[in-house]
Amino acid sequence: MIIEPRTRGFICITSHPKGCERSVLNQINYIKSKGKIEGPKKVLVIGASTGFGLASRITSAFGSNASTIGVFFEKPPAEGKTASSGWYNTAAFETEAHKEGIYAKSINGDAFSNEVKQQTIDLIKKDLGQIDMVVYSLASPVRTHPTTGMRHKSTLKPIGGSYTNKTVDFHTGEVKEITIEPSAGDDIENTVTVMGGEDWEMWIDALKKENLLSSDFKTVAYSYIGPKLTEAVYRKGTIGKAKDHLEKTAFTITDSLKDINGKAYVSVNKALVTQSSSAIPVIPLYISLLYKVMKESGVHEGCIEQIHRLYSERLFINDTPLDSKGRIRIDDWEMRDDIQEKVAALWKEATTESLPTLGDLEGYNTEFFNLFGFKYDEVDYSLESEEVIDIPGLQ
Ligand code: NAI
Ligand code: NA
């Protein structure tokens, strides 16, 4: 069929297999161009199909020749209906990995569930024996708790009072004020249950119990801090409470891994266009200004550049550098004073009329559609494309 982008709200409900393949090949080529990393050899990536998780899987496989198992939650294709982009990304990734003799298998299901954990454990036992790294990169709006069966929803709300600021609808370019009402009831608890560290710890506990973690095992989960501008809705909002919890959990997990000299890290990453960040109010305006400033200063990075730096300059060197709270920082360039001062100045001036020149609205828009395999110059979108594509190593 001929596949075109169709948007609903801030998301795109179609995706293009050729464009997703392009995106994956670009990331693989980037990693290959950087040479070998003395990194992990057997890796489980939870949240492996898009964004930072996909970049981690690609960096593991093509940077240090690692066998990878990927876990994700994606919509399979059907006749006349495209899959979600993470499905096509994974199909392209596995095809390339297998061509080079690199082990890659995947599990599509709810990572929060006991069933998917058990399925993963069985696959590791059968194929890999032990693993030396787990990347935890889930971003989800909901979690059904495996013991209580309760379904929790995460929210993106300020705490203590309503918050008013500018935002942009990046589809229309309209800059306007929005007011977000503060959290109420169980919003904070629910958000911590979904996006905090409990599930990460459950994964590591379950794997350790089965003796599937090798000595010197490492695990990393991803967090965000960001500037004053977005603090009320991000770091000091409901999602920030979940990130506080995730960051604390790293220490709990490290304690539980003492006997195998294991270590759990949180890496604070840069703000990037992903399916998850597009859904957060205010953040798209911030990102479009940030991209402009970082590109002009020559320090812009996407997911793959970020994760390459994480592996080669943070995780897999002697003495991983940490901040005063024990976190890895690869948001260092985003948070540079000169970058933040420029963004803050532009923020004040940004209007519907001025944003296209002040900010990188076009870059934002292109990257957003790139997430779904659209707007790649190399792809001829007028051609028919097969929509039903298999993931070769899907279990
Ligand atoms: P994403 O939306 O691109 O990726 C989310 C992944 O989780 C996908 O592979 C998806 O299939 C998987 N997933 C979601 N629910 C699942 C479930 N129930 N079971 C199994 N898999 C499931 O998100 P992104 O942006 O890469 O986020 C990953 C982590 O990075 C999150 O913790 C996020 O907070 C963090 N982060 C994101 C930043 C950004 O600007 N995008 C900045 C810093 C940190
Ligand atoms: Na991810």
From TrEMBL:
Pathway: Lipid metabolism; fatty acid biosynthesis. NAD(+) binds at residues 47-52, 73-74, 110-111, 138-139, 243, 272-274. Keywords: Fatty acid biosynthesis, Fatty acid metabolism, Lipid biosynthesis, Lipid metabolism, NAD, Oxidoreductase. InterPro entries: Eno_Rdtase_FAD-bd_dom (IPR024906), Enoyl-CoA_Rdtase_cat_dom (IPR024910), FabV-like_NADH_b (IPR050048), Trans-2-enoyl-CoA_reductase (IPR010758). Substrate binds at residue 224. Residues 81-316 form the Trans-2-enoyl-CoA reductase catalytic domain. It comes from the Bacteria. The active site is at 234 (proton donor). Involved in the final reduction of the elongation cycle of fatty acid synthesis (FAS II). Catalyzes the reduction of a carbon-carbon double bond in an enoyl moiety that is covalently linked to an acyl carrier protein (ACP). Belongs to the TER reductase family. HAMAP family: FabV_reductase (MF_01838). This is Enoyl-[acyl-carrier-protein] reductase [NADH]. It comes from Arcticibacterium luteifluviistationis. The gene is fabV.
